[in-house]
Amino acid sequence: MTKREAAVLVALLVVLTAMFLLSLALGSTVVPLRRVVEALTGTACERDAAVIVVESIRLPRSLTAMLAGASLGIAGLQMQTLFKNPLADPFALGISAGASLGVALVVLGSGYGAAAAFGSATGVRGDALVALAAITGAGLVLGLVLIVSSRIANPTTVLILGLMFGYAVSAVVTVLVGASQPERLQQWAQWGFGSFSGVTWQRLRLFGPLTFFGVLIASATTKQLNALLLGESYARSMGLAVRRARVLTMVGASVLGAVVTAFCGPISFLGIAVPHLCRGLLGTSDHRLLVPAVVLMGSAVALVAQIVSLLPGSAGVLPLNAVTSLMGAPIVVAVLLRSRRGAFAG
Amino acid sequence: MGATSIKRFSCAGVGVILSCGLITTVPTDGISAAGTNLTKGCVERFDATADYFPDKAVIEDAAIFSVEYRRSYKVITVKDVSAGGRAERYVLVQCGTPTPQLAGDLVGAQVVTVPIRSLFAFSTTNFPPLVDLDRVDVLTGVAQFDAVASREVRARIDAGKVVEFARVGLVIDVERVVTAKPSLLLAGSTSGATLAVIRSAGVPVVANSEWLESTALGRAEWLKYLALFLNEERKAQSIYGAMKSRYRSLSVRATAGRELERPLVMTGRSTRGLFTISGGRSYVAALIADAGGRYAWADNTAAGIASVDLEAQIQRAANADVWINGGGWKNLAEMLEDEPRYSAFKAYRQGQVWVYERPVRPGSSSDYWSRSVTHPDLVLADLIKIFHPRLVPNHAFEWYTRLPAR
Question: Which of A132-141, A305-314, B217-226, B354-363 has the lowest mean pLDDT?
């Protein structure tokens, strides 16, 4: 590790910590800093609105943002390396479209027999039903893509396959949207905005371990990723079971993407941008450095987007997806233009 | 105020007397009496000096539409045909009288022959006024059968007298409308391209913007708008007047001298941490104030609904006494499954969560959305019973129920 690389990692850690604290102190209403500290340390003598806000809204929201950001960052990195394609993201295999279809069926088609039966058979409703539908939809599409792609050797063909599945599934969603009631459309649109605020402590008990261990497992794939970066034949000569590694990485990255989508809605941009930002900052494509950087950077960027989307002080809320893309796109462009190594060092 | 102050029998003045005499001689299907508007049929012999609309609508609370009377036609101005839209003017010509020469800003205005014989109505909010005016008989088309809660309209559908013209996704089936050729299509807004096609095919299309009114009374007064096309001004004036005086007297009882006991009221529900509430300038906010409540977001500037962060809602309304218009829940336990942080609200913990979705009969949907529009006095009475139960001991809830614990 060079001095610069170490400095970048330390800086990322510092920024992340600062953003985490900031996200607890800032929100759509004003909570005095003293009350924030009291709420966090459990020394508040009175459980008033301010304490509830910090304890049950801001803290789970910030943790969710960090976990989601880290998950999408690392899943994006895996996909980009695996497919040797700078445009790949965690949703490359059509899982975002699959999740959308699942959600569209329960949100837009709550009158339809199948969707209603799905809800009553699984015994869940409301937001939990939406999450379950998203993960089911994503899983089904991913399964289909994997079955078909097991006959295909070329990674780029697999990527195109995922894209095509995505288009086909999106077409079905469009049909559902076209035939639905306006008030349901609003609910549907809201899901598409993406949000970290819907993950409560109860849901964090599921979301937390899933993403935490997901990121941990993904972090352990650095060696395979480095080997894949140098080409499949080289990887094979190093004793890597290429096909197995490829499928496992694809599944891992897609599951991370699907879990985040189920709980937070389709969060665009982070998965594709964070790896580029890290490559640009570090000037390397060594995954032993990129993986920790992507985890730190993903968490920090998600927190910043969360803070901005709340427009501190006012009651309104900007759609999270709009914030990530509007804020992130110029930064990524700047990093790409300044980086001597260009867009993609693979 | 109210019905009593309105000139209902205005058969006075030379022109009017002439028209009164004229109309009695016209062999219509037995409806017209001396000095009233012709609610069915046409004028047979045109008299240029006669006033064909002795019953006139007087608009008191609606801000979006107005009407001017000429002898044989009336001109309606709708200020907004959609949110932030443009104004439109409609010329309603008495059947049997010549179409007037339209000059100035009336050039190109939509002309409708009245009284209409058949009506395609897009919004379910159009049905209750038809029922109140006892004129469901003109209804020949509705957007979707499934959305109809009104018993009277259901009966017409079952009798096969009504067609469905926007069955899939509320997209208007142009061919169906044009071939059925109703006297009038009452649309939600008139900005769509489809409606231009329908107009050019000879079917008159007018807007229905009652949802843009900012007060409950203003919305209710759109009963008169519908009445203008039916020449039923007399009935509409009396129905609206009676309703308004009931509303006013209820509101006076609920607000006079009760500054100290006004409960703090919150509205809406949370979706993924975003609370959808009624805006501070909405008719819901006005109803809360008229029912003797204090709205937690009274200083908000939105006219319809507004979205606020859950955090902001907790800071504002954690101590609200009553929570109304949430919706979608069967009981308090189910609410908590949806969003555990609802327990931060005092109104939730004390079980003061009220919803308006009580179905008309088992298995059907609530008719709140359609019927409350022209009956704000009943909504107000419900709210007063929630905020100040002792004031209206004999009122039975029309729509609202308190959510049970489970």
Answer: B354-363
Interface touch A198/B314, C-beta < 8 Å: no
Q: How far is B365 from chain A (nearest CA, A)?
A: 13
CB-CB neighbors (< 8 A) of A180 in chain B: 169
Question: Is the pLDDT reported for residue B142 higher than 90?
Answer: yes
Which chain B residue's Cα is nearest to A48?
B318
- Please say whether the beta carbons of A98 and A162 come within 8 A: no
User: Which of A 163-192 lie inside 8 A of B, CB atoms?
Assistant: 178-182, 187, 190-191
Could you tell me the fold of the domain covering B3-242? Rossmann fold (3.40.50)
Q: In this complex, is the C-beta atom of B273 within 8 Å of any C-beta atom belonging to chain A? A: yes
In CATH terms, A3-338 corresponds, of 3.40.50.300, 3.20.190.10, 3.40.50.720, 1.10.3470.10, to 1.10.3470.10
Please give, rounded to a whole number of angstroms, the shortest distance from the CA of B315 to a CA of chain A. 6
Residue type, B40: K
In this predicted structure, the answer to whether residue A294 has a pLDDT above a threshold of 90 is yes
Question: Does residue A342 register a pLDDT over 60?
Answer: no
Tokens of A196: 């970290």
- Among B32-41, B215-224, B302-311, the minimum mean pLDDT is found in B32-41
Question: What does the pLDDT average to over A88-107?
Answer: 87
**pLDDT single digits (tens) A143-171:** 888 888 888 878 888 888 888 888 999 99
| Distance from C-alpha of B78 to C-alpha of B209, rounded to nearest angstrom | 8
Query: Is A339 part of the contact surface with chain B (CB cutoff 8 Å)?
Result: no
Q: What is the pLDDT of residue B13?
A: 41
CA distance B84 to B255: 33
The answer for residues whose C-beta is within 8 angstroms of residue A140's C-beta and 6 or more apart is A98, A102
Is B267 in a helix, a strand, or coil?
strand
- Please tell me the distance from the alpha carbon of residue B295 to that of residue B267, in angstroms, as a whole number: 8
So what's the ipTM on this one?
Answer: 0.76
Give the nearest chain A residue to B271 (CA atoms). Answer: A198
Distance from CA of A335 to the nearest CA of B (A): 33
* Residue range(s) in chain B whose domain bears CATH number 3.40.50.1980: 3-242, 258-402
Protein fold of B258-402: Rossmann fold (3.40.50)
